[in-house]
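Backbone Fold Data
Goal — fold tokens
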Amino acid sequence: MVIKIVNDELTELLGSESYEVNLKSKPPALVLMVGLQGSGKTTSSAKLANWIEKNKSKKVMMASLDIYRPAAQEQLITLGNQNGIHVLPKQDNKKPLEILKLAKKEAEKNDFDVLILDSAGRNHIDEKMMKEIKEISKFTNFTEVLFVSDSLTGQDAVNTAQSFSEKLDLTGIILTRLDGDGRGGAALSMKETINKPIKFIGIGEKLDDFEVFHPDRIANRILGMGDVVTLVEKASEQIDKDEAEKLQKKILKGRFSLVDYAKQLDQLTKMGGIQGFLKYLPGMTGLKEKVEQSEENNDIFKKQKAIISSMTKKEKSYPDIVKASRKLRISKGSGTSVQDINKLLKQFKKMSQMMKKMGKNKNFENIMSSGQLGDIQSLMNKNKLQ
């Protein structure tokens, strides 16, 4: 009962509801990214562009207004090129306002729906910086002015947010490196201090490590209650529907092979590995920390995939035939030890047995196809909060 009260209060403090980016304007919708240098602003610009293209099916363009930091424009261009996002080419000997006008003109000419502008940051707040950003923000109507902050800077992040809020009409906050801020203190303090919604959070280095901020889910994480809803959402993004249906049929027939196991490893890797998986599960904080500290766990997927790749087609389908001589051959081919192969085979055998039991369960097919996985979190919370 006490935990439930704390959970409800935390959710209320964090904002009660989630907010997405506002793109309601005549194209292109203009989004201005502001913040200090080193806050993750440039990377967040690319993450936001990627999120909008994937989730809103919008055509996005990016432009860097940073003429001060060495290679700042090149960094955004590289991120864009790596992920298929259009970026305004490098502009030499131009002021930020001139670059903004040029970017807006190009976005209009090429029918882009959204233009994300990465403004210059500084190592500290100064009058010159604030004056420049203020001029940029007044030049045109921005649908969003998002303050990007590193959650690990703690109270400094809150003070910086307040300074920006006093000078600019901020519309929301993006908190980066929230995967490292176990207690979520920055999120709590910032929302309370400047009274602006936290719209997105960065939870890792990859472009897909970017989420809409859900107060109730973050409250669950802070209290160590996990976040199964987000886990299910991430899984649905990474898992191919046709492949999932094929796997379901194999499980029902008890035909789970090492090829299928390797595919599961690939999908788990895309979701951030064991650490990325565990952080969303209730009560797994301690285990997650142990996994992060273990180099063996960090490399285990690579080893297991190498072992499976070194097997013949027959060995992958019938692992019971993998005896001493075959293990030596596979060991040499994969650059691993016989002990590593034994661990994999033992782990696979346990998983196969579990899959067979699941296949015999009459309710399994209904559970897999019901689409009610989102209710798991509320059921877990109900049990934990009582």
